[in-house]
Amino acid sequence: MQTTADEVLIGRIAGGDRLAMQVLYARHHVRVYRFVLRLVRNEATAEDLISEVFLDVWRQAGTFEGRAAVSTWLMSIARFKALSAMRRKGEAELDEEKAEAIVDTADDPQVALEKKDKGAILREALGGLSAEHREIIDLVYYHEKSVEEVATIVGIPEATVKTRMFYARKKLSELLTARGVERGWP
């Protein structure tokens, strides 16, 4: 089998011939490894990628069309895998300076507690609205419906939706101000 053409080996691999796979691997793995190593410059990564390349050959041997030499096909698979690994590596790497420069936008415990308290006050204030106003606020702000959609859902004219929304927000503002809540979040 040592003298068998690569194309014949690929055909046998497509049929599940493990010996053919071993022969193909023995014939090409050093060359493919060196090629990948020159690209990724890391021996462990190159070894992992070689395993992936030959695993792809095992899985996709039936799709080989013979438009290029088997060695060319192997190198193109290896190149794609190496470039993908280098992109992932670039995305995954983050040095200490960059990590320290990232601003933590998460709320500190005090701000989180204030928001939670304001959320409870807001829910309580919403309970102080009439059912018609509460329904409009719920559909517009919590379900993100447009005025037109709300009019269709509720079965009222768009102008009525706008009027109810105006008075609902006005009443809500009054209720929140009475509870000591100013506009917006900290």
Which SSEs are present, and which pair or pack?
Blueprint (H helix, E strand, L loop, with lengths): L5 H9 L3 H23 L2 H18 L9 H23 L3 H6 L7 H19 L3 H12 L4 H8 L3 H21 L8
Helix pairs in contact: 1-2, 2-3, 2-4, 3-4, 7-9, 8-9
Describe the structure.
The protein has 2 domains: 6-95, Rna Polymerase Sigma Factor, Chain: A (Orthogonal Bundle); 109-178, Orthogonal Bundle (Arc Repressor Mutant, subunit A), CATH 1.10.10. With 186 residues, it is an all-alpha fold. Helices cover 75% and strands 0% of the residues. The longest helix is centred in the N-terminal third of the chain and has 23 residues, at 18-40.
Here the CATH topology of the largest domain equals Rna Polymerase Sigma Factor, Chain: A
In the CATH classification, which architecture of the largest domain applies?
Orthogonal Bundle
Rg for CA atoms? 32 Å
Give the helix/strand class: mainly alpha
* CATH homologous group name of the largest domain: RNA polymerase sigma factor, region 2, helix turn helix motif
Number of helices: 9
Largest sheet: none
Report the top-level CATH class of the largest domain.
Answer: Mainly Alpha
Overall morphology: elongated
| Mean pLDDT over the full residue set | 85
The counted number of beta strands is: 0
